[in-house]
Structures are given as structure tokens and as C-alpha cells.
Write a structure and sequence with these properties.
The protein is an alpha/beta fold. It has one domain: TIM Barrel (Alpha-Beta Barrel), CATH 3.20.20.100. Helix content is 37%, strand content 17%. The strands form three sheets. Strands 3-4-5-8-9-10-11-12 form an eight-stranded parallel beta barrel, surrounded by four helices. Strand 9, helix 5 and strand 10 form a beta-alpha-beta unit. The longest helix is centred in the middle third of the chain and has 15 residues. It starts with a strand and ends with a helix.
Length: 310
């Protein structure tokens, strides 16, 4: 597994395992035994960090991750989130001092540790950025968190965070070959400021895995079933791209997902990519995804995207 350094010099695998779907919420039914098996398989495959959040199943994903950590001797890093939760079934974003401290303390208890490896603000809250940045600085000074991250931030919001004196080690934003806006703004900012960029949804929530066909049906409770961006018409539109990914995958003898992710690994400033896993088989495959592409393959993917109108 290829590794890259966080700003403090800590090496991490370029692939991290995401626990979002393990919570069940938004992804349909999920068996806890399958989630445990997925986590163990991912770690056995060389993954060294897990990304999780309290909102993933209202604490269910966190509890599963914490349980697995009690078993493993090769303890991975855990990238936590805060400031985003479910209240009466509705998402609430809150970057206030009270909420951030409460979320931090709750996760310290849930994971049985005195210091969190990384605490990320899940979404920008309605509070002034300077207020939230100050809380994170306070928690770091107190030894409650080792590293600070933010997620779903724009370039301007990042500038406001650092201008307020907020410490910052990572930025986690959406990034895939289908959604490459980060290349124009946040990724260059991270490279310039020595901040690690963590990509989520690198496979467009399954669309770029190469495993879907026109008969793909999502189970009840899976949010993708209600969104046109994952529907059959969208898959037909992307046929030239998916065919090109499959061609490269066959030529290189790697999974199609490895090609879609490999294109991202060539980007300056990228520290790691978060890939979800729901079964032992999916977890074990993560070890095959650290595969940076050659320039000729990047060029052919770009041409295929153009052919799709992307």
C-alpha cells in the first residue's frame, strides 16, 4: 500500500476506509457482522485509517469502529467528525463552542481514548468561522485532539479559518473524475498551505466501480435510488467513460475502481482517498486501489469524459 504523509509527518495509506454505509442510514439495511468483517479485511489489506462520524447511523458506525479497535493489535488512525447530527430525523449543523466540545467529549468516551487522532468539522455551521476555529484551537491546546480537519469547505472558508488562527491539518471534500471542482480551487490551496486533502466519494457512490449495469436496483432506504445522477439514463450517458475505465483495468489487470481512483492519486496535494466498504470482499479490495495511473491513461480518461459531455 502506498503511503503519504500528513502535514505533521505521520504516514497514512493513500486509501482509507469510510464507515458511512456501515451506519445503515441512507444506504439501506446493513448487517453489523458484515461491517466488522469489512473493517478487518480493509485493515488486513494495508489500510491504516478509518473515517467515521456520529451521524452515520446515529452512532452505530462509531460503535462498530470502536469495537474493532479493541481487537486489533495494529491499531489504525481514526478520523472523527463533529458538528453535524440528526435531530428528530433532520440534519442539524452546529459549529458552536458548546456543540463542538460536547461532540469531542462524546467521542473520547465512545472510543475510550484521551486524545482523538483527527477531529474534523463535518460541515460549515451557521456560526462565524472564527468562533469554530477558536474552539478547535482550544481543544488541541488541551490535548483532546492531535490534528484538526474541516470538511465541505470552500477556498474562501479555508482562508477565513486560517486567518482566524485556526490550526488545520486536513480538508475533506468530494472529489472524483466526475466531480473535479476541487482541482480548480481547494486542492491548489491545500498544496500551497501544506494541508492534506482527503477525497470522499471518489467512486461517485458506486457509479465508477464498473459493477453496475442497466438492471441495477437499489434496496429500500438507499438514497441513490431517488437520485437521477445514479439512474440508468446517467449510466448510459457515461458509457464511453465506463468503457474506457474497463479497458484500462483489463490492460493493467486491476479493478475498474482502481483506475477511477488512480486518476486522483496523480493530483498534487492529495493525501488520501476514502472508500466505503460493506463486506469483507469489498474491504479486501481496498488494498488493490492504490494504483496511480500513467499520463497516457489520464489523457484517455479525459477524452472519454469529453465524449460524455463531462
Amino acid at each position: 500500500m502506498i503511503k503519504r504523509d500528513l502535514p505533521d509527518g505521520t504516514p497514512i495509506s493513500v486509501i482509507g476506509v469510510g464507515a458511512f454505509a456501515m451506519g445503515g442510514w441512507m444506504w439501506g439495511a446493513q448487517q453489523d457482522d458484515d461491517s466488522r468483517a469489512a473493517l478487518h479485511a480493509a485493515l488486513d489489506a494495508g489500510v491504516t485509517w478509518i473515517d467515521t462520524a456520529p451521524i452515520y447511523g446515529d452512532g452505530r458506525a462509531d460503535a462498530l469502529v470502536a469495537e474493532v479497535l479493541t481487537i486489533r493489535q495494529d491499531r489504525p488512525l481514526v478520523f472523527h467528525k463533529c458538528g453535524h447530527r440528526l435531530v428528530d430525523g433532520q440534519r442539524v449543523t452546529d459549529g458552536s463552542r458548546e456543540r463542538i466540545i460536547a461532540d469531542c467529549e462524546q467521542q473520547l468516551r465512545a472510543f475510550g481514548v484521551e486524545c482523538l487522532d483527527l477531529l474534523q468539522l463535518h460541515w460549515p455551521g451557521p456560526q462565524p468561522i472564527a468562533e469554530t476555529a477558536g474552539v478547535f484551537a482550544e481543544l488541541k491546546r488541551a490535548g483532546k485532539i492531535r490534528r484538526v480537519g474541516v470538511s465541505n469547505f470552500s477556498r474562501d472558508q479555508l482562508a477565513a479559518w486560517t486567518a482566524a488562527g485556526g490550526p488545520l491539518d486536513t480538508v475533506q471534500n468530494k472529489y472524483s473524475i466526475l466531480d473535479s471542482q476541487a482541482e480548480a480551487d481547494v486542492l491548489p490551496w491545500c498544496a500551497e498551505h501544506a494541508v492534506g486533502f482527503l477525497a470522499y466519494s471518489p467512486l461517485a457512490r458506486g457509479l465508477l466501480t464498473g459493477t453496475w449495469d442497466d438492471t441495477k436496483v437499489f434496496p429500500p432506504g438507499d438514497h441513490r435510488g431517488d437520485r437521477a445522477e445514479y439512474g440508468s439514463e446517467r449510466r448510459r450517458q457515461l458509457a464511453p467513460l465506463l468503457a474506457e475505465l474497463a479497458r484500462i483495468a483489463e490492460e493493467e489487470d486491476v479493478p475498474v475502481a482502481a483506475v477511477a481512483i488512480g486518476a486522483l492519486l496523480c493530483t498534487e496535494g492529495l493525501a488520501g482517498v476514502i472508500v466505503g466498504a460493506r463486506t469483507a470482499e469489498q474491504g479486501s479490495l481496498l488494498g488493490d486501489y492504490a494504483y496511480p495511473l500513467r499520463q497516457r491513461d489520464l489523457d484517455s480518461i479525459a477524452a472519454a469524459l469529453t465524449a460524455c459531455g463531462g
